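Sanity check

After download, print the first record. It should look like this:
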Amino acid sequence: MTKRGLASGALGLALLVHGCAGLIAKEPAETGSRPPGPVAAPSGGTFEVEKGRPGFVIAAPHGTSDAATDAIGRDLARLTGFSLVVVTGYTQIDALGRRYNVNRPTESVPGSAARLEVETAPAREVYQVYRRRVAEAAQGPLKLYVEVHGNARPETAGRMEIATVGLGRDDAWRLKTLLELIRDSRVTEPGDVPRFDVWIEPLDPLVYTASGAKQSGVLGQAPVALHIEIPRLARITHREAYTTVLADFLIQSAALLVR
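Expected structure tokens:
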């Protein structure tokens, strides 16, 4: 049996042992209400949309400031067949290094606390365009929404963090087990590629909970959503290895989360 087969078999056994309670998916919902009339975003950024599987969207809203997430998003869409939204630009809009947050109607310095974000008219315009692009990519009700992000904080350098919408603790346990099994089947030891830990909400305490995007952004409007924070080494040095890990994870997660 191949290692990939072992991963699938081990997951099935783990799920059976844990219990028979399945994931309960919410009814599909639109990506918020349509903004009134056409909206032109401020200059300085670009939006890229590729239509794939209806209802399933992968997005990289910080494709420039979260280095390599634009490339990872494109590769994940190609490998999974999901639709894609990539936004580049909108970084360093002033001398303080602030950016438009794109996936919510605010601007802030990257990495700052959600309470320090400020909603402005230009940030709202960028967000309205982003929301329309996500709706365009979804081609109807949004079923599963995935954002890929990156950070370079020392305390999260050794792990992937996944903030979630629409998942309980059992759901999180299943997805964490799934991702760990896929990682272990593809990242063998000893080897040059490190095994990054997996922390997932609400099972684990996260540094990046995406609270701002949940409160006022697309994340809060999706029935099921995953906000994936990828450490720098996994995005830059070992991007190919972890892109294939995440692609396999998303394909299998979609089957678990959306009925």
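If your output differs, re-run the checksum step. Summary of this record's structure: The chain has one domain: 3-29+45-90+136-257.
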